[in-house]
Write a structure and sequence with these properties.
8-stranded parallel beta sheet; 7-stranded parallel beta sheet; about 775 residues; alpha/beta; 25 strands; single chain
Length: about 775
C-alpha cells in the first residue's frame, strides 16, 4: 500500500542541500521579505506578453512505496526560444560577487520546477534559469542551462532518495501516533468538578474552529483538560500540530509533565520544548558566529544527522534531551530546538515565539496554521506582555554615538545618524516642554530617516563584520528595525511617547490596546484557547485578548471546598498617603495572623519599596520570627533556594516576604503544610507612572472607566494569583488575609471569586 507525503519544493531542496554556518550578525528583518517581493515584481514586469509568473506547480512521484506530492510556486515561465523556468533570487548585498553557477540550493529549486513543468507538458527538454537581482539597484545577473527531461527526472529521484530516510521515519511514526491516540483514555479514573466541562468545551472549540476564553480556578486541572481533547482531535485528523504557550518556566514544566503522563498511558507524540537561547547556549557569551562558536560553525552541514538521530530515538524533546543531542552532533541547541519544533506534533514555548514580531517562529508562521491548535496558559499575563511586544523605542544617544563612531570611516552611516540625532534634538526643544509629552500620530519624518539609516546598514553590515564599531552599529540597527516594524502596524490603538532625560531623548511607540493585533495573530488557528484562574472581569480580558461576542466563554467554579479557606479582610488603608500612619497596625496584624495559624506564610506587597519598609520594621519588632525576603533580582538557583525553605516539618514557622505579580506570586506549588497562610497587603494597583496614565486616558477616551482598565483590573489579577498559592489540592487548608479597606467596597466585592463571599472583617 502506497502512503502519501506532501513536501514543498523549498523544503525538499533545503533538506538535501543544507550546509553552512549560523551567523546572526547578518541582518534579518521583515522588510527583507518585502524587498524580495518588490524585486521579484520588478523583474516579472520585464517578462514578455504570454510569459507566466507565480505559477503553482504540483506533481506526484512514487518511490519505495511512498507517493511524494511535490508542490511549489514557480517565479516565472518564459516562452522565448523554447520554454524557460525562471527562478528569481533577490540580494541585499549586490550581485557582483555572486557566482551564479555555484548555489546548489537555488539551482535545485529551479531544476525541480523544470522537471514538474516538463512532465506536465510532456517536454523532451527545458531551459532552467536562475536570476539574481539587487534590491538596492537595477543590477541583475542571470545564468541559463538546458536539461533533458530524463536528466531532470534523475535529479528529482536523487533528491527524493536523500529525503526518503526522513520521510519513511516520519510516515512510520505517524501511523504509530494515530493508533496510540485512538486507544488513549483519559489518564485519571474520574474527572474533577469542572474538568469534563472544560475538556468538552475545548474539543467543541477545535471542531467548530472557534476561540474559547476560560476562567479555570486552581485545582480543576486545566492543563490536562485542554491538552487531552486537543490530542484526541489530532487523532481524528482535525488537528496537525498543538502549540502550548505560557509566560512562566514552571507552567511549561507542567505541560511537559502532562505529556509525560499521557506517554505513560501509551501516547506516541513528538513534543518539543523551546528554551530561551541565553539559557541553553553552551558558550560563555551568546555570540552566534562561526568564528566564535563551534556549534554555529558548520551547523547546517550536521543538522540533518542530528535531526534523524533524535527523531529515531526520542519522543520528548525537552531541554535536557536537546542539549544532549546538540553536544553529540556539535550543533547549536537553540537552533536545533527550532528545527525540531517544526517537525514535532506539539510545541511548548513562551508567548514570544507566537506573538512577538521580533522572535516569533517565522518558519512556523509560513506553514498552514488552520490545522494548528493554540493553547494560551496563564492568559492574564498576555495583556501586559503583548503591550510590551508591540511597543518599540529609540534613543537619541544611540545615533549621536553612531555619528561620532563613523565620522571618519563611513560617511553615509555618520551622516544618516546625524540627521536622526538632529531631528530628536529639535523635538526635544520644540515639543517636549516638560519631562515627557505624547501625540496620537507618529513622527513621519523620523520613520523616513530611520528607514534610510537601515537601508545603509543593510549594505554595510554583511560585508564589514570585522570592522571597528560593527557590534555597536548592529545593536542600533536592530533598535531602528524594531521601531520601523512597529511603525508599520501603528494605528489608533497606539500613542507616541516622547521623553527627555538630561541630554537624551527617547521616542517610544506605545501599544495601548493589543486586542486587535492579538486577534490578527490568532485568526488562522484551527482553535485558540485562552485560559487562566484569574480572567476576571471576563469582559475586560475578552476585549484585551482580541475576543468578540462570537467567541465562546466559560467560567468554572473552584473544585475545592470553600470552607478550606479561612478568609479575613482587614478594614485598614494601605493607600500611599496613609502608609506612614498604618505601618505599625499592618505589622501587628501580620503577627496576629501568624499566631492564629501556626505554619509557613507568604506575605505579598504591591512594591519592593513597601515590602522592604514593612520587612525592616517587622524584623525589628518581632526578631524571633524566622523570615526571608524576595530579592529584586534572583536567578533560578536563588528562587529554588527560597522555595526549598518552605518545608512541612519546619521546627520554626517561616515567613516569606514577596511582591505581587512577581516570581513567587504565581506558578508555584507549596502543597500541604508547606504553606499555611497567605497575607496580601493592598489591592495590587500598578505603580503610578506616565505609561499607566496614558492607558487610563486612552480607555477613558473610548468611554470606559480608564482607572479600572489601567489600574484596578491588572491589580486584582495579581491579588487573585497570589491568593491562589494557598490551596493547591483538595486536602489543602489555610488562612487568607486581605489587608485593605477597598476589598470591602462594592466594586472590589464584584471582582472577588464567589467562594470568597464568606469572610471575617477585622477592624
Amino acid at each position: 500500500m502506497t502512503s502519501d507525503i506532501h513536501v514543498s519544493v523549498r523544503s525538499l531542496v533545503e533538506y538535501v542541500y543544507s550546509s553552512g554556518s549560523i551567523d546572526t550578525a547578518l541582518p534579518r528583518r521583515n522588510s527583507v521579505l518585502i524587498d524580495g517581493v518588490k524585486t521579484h515584481q520588478r523583474l516579472q514586469k520585464l517578462y514578455k506578453e504570454g510569459d507566466l509568473k507565480e505559477v503553482h506547480l504540483t506533481c506526484s512521484v512514487e518511490y519505495e512505496d511512498i507517493e511524494y506530492v511535490l508542490e511549489g510556486r514557480c517565479d516565472g515561465i518564459l516562452f522565448d526560444d523554447g520554454v524557460t523556468i525562471d527562478e528569481i533570487k533577490s540580494s541585499q548585498t549586490g550581485v557582483d560577487h555572486i557566482d551564479e553557477e555555484a548555489n546548489k540550493y537555488h539551482w535545485g529549486q529551479a531544476k525541480l520546477y523544470g522537471y514538474m513543468y516538463a512532465r506536465k507538458e510532456e517536454l523532451p527538454e527545458i531551459h532552467v534559469q536562475v536570476t539574481y537581482a539587487d534590491v538596492h539597484s537595477e543590477k541583475m545577473k542571470a545564468s541559463k542551462r538546458t536539461y533533458t527531461f530524463s536528466e531532470l527526472e534523475k535529479f528529482t529521484y536523487e533528491l527524493i532518495d536523500e529525503y526518503s530516510k526522513y520521510a519513511s521515519l516520519r510516515l512510520d511514526f505517524e501511523k504509530k501516533k494515530i493508533e496510540s491516540i485512538k486507544q488513549l483514555a483519559f489518564p485519571f479514573s474520574r474527572y474533577r468538578k469542572g474538568q469534563r466541562d472544560l475538556a468538552v468545551a475545548t474539543y467543541k472549540t477545535i471542531v467548530e474552529d472557534k476561540k474559547l476564553f476560560v476562567k479555570a480556578p486552581t485545582g480543576i486541572g486545566k492543563t490536562i483538560s485542554t491538552i487531552f481533547p486537543s490530542v484526541k482531535a489530532m487523532g481524528e485528523g482535525i488537528v496537525r500540530k498543538l502549540i502550548y504557550v505560557t509566560a512562566k518556566t514552571i507552567t511549561r514544566t507542567v505541560a511537559e509533565e502532562t505529556f509525560s503522563l499521557l506517554r505513560e498511558k501509551g501516547l506516541r507524540m513528538k513534543v518539543c520544548t523551546i528554551t530561551a537561547k541565553d539559557k541553553v547556549c553552551f558558550k560563555d557569551e551568546t555570540i552566534c558566529q562561526k568564528d566564535y562558536c563551534e556549534f554555529a560553525n558548520g551547523y547546517y552541514d550536521r543538522i540533518n544527522g542530528a535531526i534523524l538521530d533524535i527523531l529515531e530515538k526520542e519522543d520528548s524533546f525537552n531541554r535536557v534531551t536537546i542539549e544532549r543531542y546538540a553536544k553529540k552532533h556539535t550543533v547549536c541547541p537553540f537552533e536545533f530546538s527550532l528545527d525540531i519544533a517544526l517537525l514535532s506534533d506539539s510545541i511548548i514555548c513562551d508567548y514570544n515565539y507566537v506573538f512577538d514580531p521580533r522572535v516569533a517562529l517565522k518558519r512556523l508562521s509560513m506553514d498552514n496554521k488552520n490545522s494548528y491548535v493554540l493553547l494560551v496558559d496563564e492568559a492574564h499575563n498576555l495583556v501586559e506582555r503583548a503591550r510590551s511586544m508591540y511597543s518599540a523605542s529609540i534613543h537619541k544617544s544611540s545615533f549621536l554615538n553612531m555619528k561620532r563612531l563613523f565620522s571618519t570611516t563611513v560617511k553615509e552611516i555618520s551622516s544618516s545618524a546625524s540627521q536622526i540625532n538632529e531631528l530628536l534634538l529639535k523635538l526635544k526643544k520644540e515639543e517636549i516642554i516638560e519631562q515627557y509629552t505624547t501625540r496620537k500620530e507618529m513622527i513621519g519624518e523620523l520613520s523616513e530617516l530611520l528607514q534610510g539609516f537601515v537601508d545603509i546598514c543593510d549594505e554595510w553590515i554583511p560585508r564589514n563584520q570585522q570592522e571597528k564599531g560593527f557590534q555597536e552599529l548592529l545593536d542600533v540597527y536592530f533598535e531602528a528595525n524594531m521601531y520601523l516594524k512597529i511603525a508599520n502596524i501603528y494605528d489608533d490603538s497606539f500613542i507616541t511617547y516622547m521623553e527627555q532625560n538630561q541630554n537624551d531623548v527617547k521616542i517610544k511607540l506605545v501599544c495601548l490596546h493589543p486586542g486587535k493585533l492579538l486577534k490578527e495573530n490568532t485568526k488562522n488557528y484551527r482553535g485558540t484557547l485562552f485560559f487562566s484562574a484569574t480572567l476576571i472581569p471576563g469582559n475586560y480580558y475578552l476585549e484585551m485578548l482580541g475576543g468578540s461576542s462570537e467567541d465562546y466563554t466559560l467560567a468554572l467554579s473552584s473544585p475545592f471546598d470553600p470552607n478550606n479557606v479561612d478568609l479575613s479582610i482587614a478594614n485598614l488603608s494601605t493607600r500611599y498617603k496613609d502608609r506612614d500612619a498604618t505601618f505599625e497596625k499592618i505589622i501587628d496584624l501580620i503577627y496576629e495572623d501568624l499566631s492564629r495559624a501556626k505554619g509557613n506564610f507568604l506575605i505579598f506587597f504591591p512594591s519592593y519599596q513597601y515590602m522592604n519598609a514593612v520587612y525592616d520594621k517587622f524584623t525589628i519588632k518581632y526578631p524571633s520570627v524566622k523570615s526571608i525576603i524576595q530579592e529584586n533580582i534572583m536567578d533560578e538557583e536563588n528562587r529554588e533556594e527560597f522555595l526549598h525553605l518552605f518545608q512541612e516539618d519546619n521546627k520554626k514557622a517561616l515567613i516569606g516576604f514577596a511582591v505581587l505579580g512577581g516570581i513567587f506570586s504565581e506558578g508555584i506549588d507549596l502543597k500541604g503544610d508547606r504553606l499555611t497562610g497567605v497575607i496580601i497587603v493592598g489591592v495590587g494597583l500598578p505603580q503610578l507612572n506616565s505609561e499607566q496614565d496614558m492607558l487610563k486616558e486612552y480607555f477613558r477616551s473610548l468611554g470606559k472607566n480608564g482607572f479600572d482598565y489601567a489600574y484596578v483590573y491588572p491589580g486584582i489579577s495579581k491579588v487573585l494569583q497570589a491568593a491562589g498559592r494557598l490551596i493547591r489540592t483538595e486536602t489543602d487548608k489555610g488562612r487568607l488575609l486581605l489587608i485593605d479597606d477597598r476589598f470591602l467596597t462594592e466594586k472590589y466585592q464584584r471582582l472577588l471569586p464567589n467562594e470568597w463571599k464568606q469572610f471575617n472583617i477585622i477592624n
